[in-house]
Input
Amino acid sequence: LAGLQAKIQQAESESYQRVQALLLLEDMLNRISTNRANAASYVSANPLGTGDSQPASCASLSGAAKDLCEWSASLKGAAERQSGSGSAIGAMAGARGCIELLAGSNPPVYRVTVAWQGMTNLSTPSLSCGQNLYGADGYRRAIAGHLPIANLSN
Output
């Protein structure tokens, strides 16, 4: 029974992290969709979130730079703080986000990916965001959403 309880708790934790990732994924897709004219400004060469170089405060930024900074803070767990220490705890373990323009797509299609550290070694995700940043790649979890941006000016 103890082993079963441990498996249930692990599955619950993995499930919670997946829901958090879906919320963060939807957040960035909405930010890009709202600022469609500047969608290319959201493409990131390196993952955002854990280990990135975004500033601690996004107050002085605007537009896509502010959206990326705020999303990075959310990936790092800034939405929820631990009582006493003030440590960010509101996101998945080792959360990272990637935004890329898919090559050869017409209209342009942007892929937003959220990756995080899972608790068990499973099959390796086909998405490259966060690859080789979580030890054995089977511990990496990743989900993605696609956003086509139609050119309505012609």
In short: Residues 2-34 form the longest helix (33 residues). Residues 90 and 125 are 24 Å apart (CA to CA).
